């Protein structure tokens, strides 16, 4: 296969990478997963969350053993109360889709774990927040570049009459 015939395939590949950034899957706690943090690091999960940029449509994955994850209200989060969660899972590999902007409060459902720091607040940005910052502009620019690359590849392949 000649190099000139590989170019359209490469263009399509790189363009698809640009579009793949529309939603992201996050592993809560990275390699640590969802567990009681060390005694001297009780803010571990909120620090992890603050280093990430969550958007509507992203998914967070909780990986754990002999535990659970609950989504609760702000008050329940502060008081580590787990009697009326709006979401509960204990399957060891929980996926949660962030379906709105705003704050999400998560705690462990195992007695004593929340009090020891196994809790987290996720802030999901609104679409309006993206429009006002440079990363939103970068995403738009990447999408325009990807569209241009796809069009160039299609023209090169002679498939421009679509």
Automatic annotation (TrEMBL):
InterPro entries: Cupredoxin (IPR008972), ENL_dom (IPR041846), Phytocyanin-like (IPR039391), Phytocyanin_dom (IPR003245). The keyword GTP-binding does not apply. It is a lipid-anchor; GPI-anchor. It is found in: Endomembrane system; Membrane. The keyword Glycoprotein applies. Residues 1-23 form the signal peptide. CDD domains: OsENODL1_like. GO terms for cellular component: endomembrane system; plasma membrane; side of membrane. It holds the Pfam family Cu_bind_like. Belongs to the early nodulin-like (ENODL) family. This is Phytocyanin domain-containing protein. It comes from Stephania yunnanensis.
């Amino acid at each position: 296969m000649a190099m000139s015939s590989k170019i359209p395939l490469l263009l399509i590949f790189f363009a698809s990478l640009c579009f793949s950034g529309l939603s992201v899957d996050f592993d809560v706690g990275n390699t640590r997963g969802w567990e009681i943090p060390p005694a001297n690091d009780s803010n571990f999960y909120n620090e992890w969350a603050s280093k990430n940029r969550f958007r509507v449509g992203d998914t967070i994955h909780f990986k754990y053993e002999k535990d659970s994850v609950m989504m609760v209200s702000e008050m329940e989060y502060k008081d580590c109360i787990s009697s009326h969660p709006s979401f509960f899972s204990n399957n060891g590999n929980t996926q949660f889709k962030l379906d709105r902007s705003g704050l999400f409060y998560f705690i462990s459902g195992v007695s004593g774990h929340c009090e020891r720091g196994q809790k987290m607040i996720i802030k999901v940005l609104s679409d309006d927040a993206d429009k006002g910052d440079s990363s939103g502009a970068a995403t738009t620019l990447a999408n325009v570049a990807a569209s241009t690359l796809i069009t160039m590849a299609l023209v090169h392949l002679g498939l421009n009459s679509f």
